[in-house]
Structure formats: structure tokens, C-alpha cells
Amino acid sequence: MKALFEVLQPGDPDFELAGTIDPHRLPKHIAIIMDGNGRWANRRSLPRVAGHRAGVGPVRSTVETCARLGIDVLTLYAFSVENWKRPRAEIETLWRLLRFYLGKELPELQKNAIRLQAIGRLEALPPKVRAELEAVIEATSHNRGLRVNLAINYGGRMEIVDAVNGIIERARLEGRLDALRVDEESIAAQLYTATSPDPDLLIRTSGEMRISNFLLWQIAYSELYVTETLWPDFNPTELLKAILEYQKRDRRYGGLSREGLNGARPDREENLIEAIVSSR
Ligand code: IPE
Ligand code: IPE
Ligand code: MG
Q1: Is residue 49 part of a domain?
Q2: Which of 5, 9, 81, 109 has the CA that lies 20 to 30 A from 182?
Q3: Is residue 18 included in any domain, yes or no?
Q4: Within a domain: residue 21?
Q5: Structurally, how many domains does the chain consist of?
Q6: Residue 20 lies in a domain
Q7: Is the pTM of this model over 0.90?
Q8: In angstroms, rounded to a whole number, what is the distance separating the alpha carbons of residues 196 and 143?
Q9: Ligand 1 pocket check: which of 32, 39, 98 to mutate, most ligand atoms within 8 Å of Cβ?
Q10: Mean pLDDT split into 10-residue runs, the chain, 280 residues
Q11: What phi, psi does 201 have (nearest 5°)?
């Protein structure tokens, strides 16, 4: 697959924007709360499901742009455990759209070495949806390009509870329940995302300033980016803007930035910088 920088031509609206992005400091993992489909439809006096339908295109273009940029992991929040509260007809449309996406997208995923994975309690999905999802996961499991995690029937708290219960169950089976202690490593290793790095950048569309139970554990030090753009209007330009903003952030992880060290005693400054760098 051609890199984004090879595909864009001078005159393309994204050409200049892409040129301002530092290819050496890209986020490894981008997570997106794809929100605002219903409002997009409402503004056009269309039924909510029309917004969901219009949300498929941006999924495709975002996956493609991330693959072209060389991002390692993209996690997309498609359906939360709380979304079951919605009318049945809306939920059924979401499953139909997922099946439509999976059915149509497989050749493209294969061509671009994209690996699809899912996070969430898949056992609650309608059997046909689950079977098709698992078939695409299996078919793409050997791909080594962009990894796309679809969060479906996903809840952050539920994930942590499942992880802890998994640890307890294993200890019980191995007869070491009495001495059991959990730590950050053992919980992280039991999460659905155990094999992915934590998200560097979390994007939420539609302006809502909340996390809505997404990746609670993993976003401890993610950079947050909220755009007013509704998900059906999200496009590669929007993604590039988010990445550019991410590259302006100073990720301190509780330490100090180089600017923050101004005024520190020069004899100690070296040690401080070393401490910060080695903690990353
Ligand atoms: C996001 O759009 C898609 C899902 C949650 C499945 P919404 O359907 O939440 O759209 P709004 O927030 O009502 O506009
Ligand atoms: C979060 O959006 C879930 C997904 C994008 C799948 P919601 O629309 O469900 O979140 P709230 O209800 O506004 O918090
Ligand atoms: Mg919403």
C-alpha cells in the first residue's frame, strides 16, 4: 500500500497539512469514539439510522488513512454495552451495517495487510453477526499491517471486571488463590487490549466531553482530542488535524518538560532530564 505522503499531490487540500506532520512522531495507537451519527441525521430531518449508514464511509477512510500513515493500531468504538438501551430497530440497523462493512471490506483489508480484531463481549451479538465477524478476524489474522480493533458490546468497567475475574479464575484452577495478588501488569495483561500499546491519541467526534466507558484503564495517559465534527463528516483532513494537534502536546507523564526545568539548578538538570527520559 502506498504511503499517504506518496498518494497526496500538490494542490490536494491535505497535501500541505500532511506536510506539517512529523512522520517520526506519529501516535502508535489511535482510539476513536465515533459519535454524532444521530445528530447528523436529525439535522437533515432524516431517521437516525441514516446517520449510522453515513458513518460507514468515514470508517473506511479512517482505516485507509491510518494504514497509509503507518499507524500500528486503530481502535474504533462501534457499540457500547450501554447502547443496548436504544430502540431495537436502531440496534438491528447497526448489526446490518456491521455485516455490510465486513462483507464488503475483506478484500480491501487483505490487500492492505490490515488485521481486524474485536474487543468486547462478542457472545451477546446475534449469531450471524458474530460468525461473520469471527470469520474476518480469522481471515486477516496473519496480516502484519495496521491492526484495527473494533470495540463492539464493549464497556471499560466490564473489561476491568472481566480481567480481574480471569486472574482469580486462573489462580483458583492452579490452586494458588490464597497467595493471589494483582498488580498493574497482571491486570493489563488480561485486558482485551493486552497485545496493543495504550492509545497515544483518543479522538471523540461530536463535541461531547466524556469518555462514555471507553478504554478506562488504557487511556490513563492518552492525549484527548475532541472535535465538533459529527462522525459522518469525519474525513482524512480531520484525522490529520488531530494528529497535528497531538504532535504539539507535551506528554509529561507526571514528570517535567524541558521548559519546566528552566530555573532548575544546572548541576541537577542533567539528572532530572535523564530521570524523565528513562521513565518514558
Ligand atoms: C454514534 O452515534 C454511534 C453509536 C453510538 C452506535 P450516535 O448514534 O450516538 O449519535 P448521537 O450521539 O445520537 O448524535
Ligand atoms: C459512545 O457514544 C459509544 C459509541 C460511540 C459506540 P454514545 O452516544 O453511546 O455515548 P453517550 O450516551 O453520549 O455518552
Ligand atoms: Mg452519541
Answers
A1: yes
A2: 81
A3: no
A4: no
A5: 1
A6: no
A7: yes
A8: 15
A9: 39
A10: 88 90 97 98 98 98 97 98 98 97 96 97 97 98 98 98 97 96 96 96 98 98 98 98 97 86 58 65
A11: -130, 125
